[in-house]
Specification:
Largest sheet: 4 strands, antiparallel
Order of helices and strands: HHHHHEEEEEEEHHHHHHH
Structural class: alpha+beta
Helix content: 40-55%
Bound molecules: flavin-adenine dinucleotide
Number of helices: 12
Strand order of the largest sheet: 2-3-7-6
Distance between the termini: 27 Å
Oligomer: single chain
Radius of gyration: 21 Å
Number of strands: 7
């Protein structure tokens, strides 16, 4: 299913305007004060950008993964934290739009999300599971058509600011750790108690401390099916593509700043090519390769979904490996590119108060390899490669 090209072009123009008029001007303050990018998210709401992944018949724009990734990449060039908030929101909306359409509750909820431009956040992490998203300790307990859920999450980006949270939990108190469901809890269904701080090197505007969640809600708010499937078919592909696109965006802005430096020094000595121009040429090669990798896999995902047995293909080992490889390679490449941009621009980029400053880019992009640890993903890949039969 393709989106309406006019809708996409309008949303792309809107996100470009928000990036330059709102996100870029507030980025330094968001970073310095580790505060939520309120004005940027409000602008995204006003431009109807929060419902971009919702199907057309429910009032959304039904953008493809490749299109959503372009939006995140544009915003990341202005503010990495804002782009991460948008990406994490899109990941949650995609899970509902791809796995909840058979349930009346979720169809109505998505219509409400379109109308009200609701912001969704996520709680997959949990104290005691050590960053393994496919295991939960907490469990939903059902009685009389309702459930209760208590979770002790290590990290919950903008949970205090969002309108609802998607939470992973065991299906029942006697279920295995990997027998999980995804549960939607809406403001009013839960209380949050902050358990840790969020004074980090980067991605400071995502406001992601630990929280204890105490929730109770109707049973219909449990997403149909298993998290094993929605994770493989939606959460992982959307996460790895959208994160990669925004890491690219951060790196692209760093290279743009370095390029501006090189051109400034070239103008001072007409007729000569500054030595840094060669390094600039080199780093643009890496930047282009990174862009092609997320664009290519986003396109493959969209093509697979356009086919009849798309959801089945997304459960294959070879697809899981591709997605994991994208995450690992993008999260390793983006910091290297920012590092090279810093070497090219030199001291003006090392300083925090010039128009070439790269401190925020550098710190933001260092989160990439930790955000679901690359070591953990590599260990999963290693196990899958041992049993891989497909090529
Ligand atoms: C900016 C940002 C925003 C986030 N937002 C959210 C959010 O909104 N909701 C949410 O639930 N979570 C969020 N997270 C948390 C994320 O989902 C992970 O849970 C978290 O980054 C992993 O934490 P960890 O490094 O302590 O865990 P671990 O994965 O346990 O890693 C700890 C250490 O163990 C090593 N390690 C792990 N597995 C292996 C292995 N198999 N072999 C060898 N070494 C291994 C790692 O390299 C690392 O050194 C966010 C994280 C970041 C950085």
């Amino acid at each position: 299913m393709r989106s309406n090209t006019n809708d996409f072009n309008a949303l792309l123009a809107a996100v470009k305007a928000i990036a330059s008029n709102t996100a870029a001007p507030e980025a330094a303050d968001v970073d310095a004060r580790a505060r939520f990018p309120q004005a940027t998210v409000q602008a995204l709401r006003s431009a109807q950008l929060l419902s971009a992944p919702v199907p057309l018949e429910l009032g959304g724009a039904r953008l493809t993964l490749r299109e959503l990734a372009q939006l995140c990449a544009v915003l990341a060039q202005a503010c990495g934290s804002s782009a991460m908030v948008l990406a994490m929101h899109y990941i949650q909306v995609a899970c509902l739009a791809r796995h909840g359409l058979g349930a009346e509750f979720f169809r109505h909820y998505l219509q409400e999300l379109v109308r009200e431009q609701l912001l969704l956040s996520s709680m997959t992490s949990e104290n005691g599971t050590f960053g393994e998203t496919r295991t939960s300790i907490c469990a939903v307990e059902r009685a009389d058509g309702r459930f209760t859920l208590r979770k002790d999450a290590t990290t919950g980006s903008y949970c205090a600011e969002s309108d609802a949270i998607l939470v992973t939990a065991r299906r029942a108190p006697d279920a295995a750790g990997s027998d999980q469901v995804l549960v939607l809890v809406r403001k009013g269904d839960y209380t949050l108690t902050q358990t840790s701080s969020w004074d980090t090197l980067g991605m400071r505007g995502t406001c992601s401390p630990g929280f204890k969640l105490d929730a109770a809600a109707p049973e219909e708010q449990i997403l149909p099916g298993s998290f094993a499937d929605s994770s493989a078919q939606s959460m992982v592909p959307y996460s790895h593509v959208l994160w990669s696109s925004l890491w690219w965006g951060i790196a692209a802005d760093a290279v743009a700043r370095a390029g501006e430096c090189v051109r400034t020094s070239a103008r001072k000595n007409p007729g000569t090519v500054p030595p840094t121009a060669l390094r600039l040429a080199e780093v643009t090669t890496q930047l282009q390769a990174l862009r092609h990798s997320w664009q290519q896999l986003a396109g493959e995902f969209d093509d697979i979904n356009a086919g009849g047995d798309g959801m089945q293909q997304l459960l294959s080992i070879s697809w899981a490996l591709k997605m994991n490889n994208l995450k690992i390679s993008a999260s390793e490449a983006a910091p290297q590119i920012v590092h090279k941009a810093l070497q090219i621009a030199g001291i003006v980029a090392y300083k925090n108060d010039t128009r070439f400053s790269l401190g925020r880019h550098y710190r933001d992009v260092l989160s990439a390899s930790l955000m679901i640890s690359n070591e953990r993903i590599a260990a999963k890949n290693a196990a899958m490669l041992l049993v891989l039969k497909e090529t």
